[in-house]
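INSTRUCTION: Work out how this chain folds

Fields: amino acid sequence; protein backbone structure tokens

Chain under study, with its fold:
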Amino acid sequence: MDFLMRDDSKLTSAQWDAIDKKVVEAAKTVLVGRRLLDVYGPIGAGIQAIEAPEDGQVRPVEIPLLGEDVTLSWRELQTAETLGIPLSLANVASAAVSCALQEDGLVFLGDKERGVDGILTAPGVEHVTRGDWSQGEAAFADVAAGLQRMLENRTYGQKALVVSPDVYAQLQRIQPGTGTLEAARIAALIDGRILQTPTLPTGTAALVATGEQNMDLVIGQDMVTAYLGNAGMDYELRVFETVLPRLKNAHAVVVFEG
């Protein structure tokens, strides 16, 4: 991976290993899309486009480059070396979290400027007005109706409900007369998971049917860190990746909006 230019830096192999480990650990705490979508790849950092559904046809679509720059202070590097202590990588973790949030934003909402559809915003995806999910059985009834529509459209695959944080909080209540959390009832109904992500707009939820026949996530270059050069005495790095969500079956998503 010469394009990472790590040999041009004076960071040791052990330090690069620590950076790689920190990036993976931090990203895993955030990423939601990868917990749902089948991954296609990595196919290589140099692959710039791949076939994907677009306007009812299959066409080459550019694989977006996502990333976040980060600075390693020369003083922190010198302190770690002098005292023989681990290098502080808090800012590297923050950059990885930012990159992961960019990925989930692309997965669920897409990016109009890049010409990329998210799995919730792609043409043909059904959008319905949800009831008041903080009251009664509105949430259960809406999800049940969405599940029924998927079955009517012969759409199969493991189900999951992806929600914004405020909707997730609404589902953490005991349903009167059942002694059961509303979230638990819905999870049992869909025989799947309920996942929250801050990348969704407030008041949004989506029932999705996963599986590579319905959707996947193309990875060109998985999340990694490159050396950009020096800014004065500090080290400039970039945490980046190339990814593209592909929705192959619009019936595999039902979006509930408040």
In short: Residues 126-214+253-257 form a domain with the hypothetical protein PF0899 fold fold (CATH 3.30.2320.10). Helices lie at 13-28, 74-83, 90-109, 138-152, 165-170, 182-190. The chain has six helices and 16 strands.
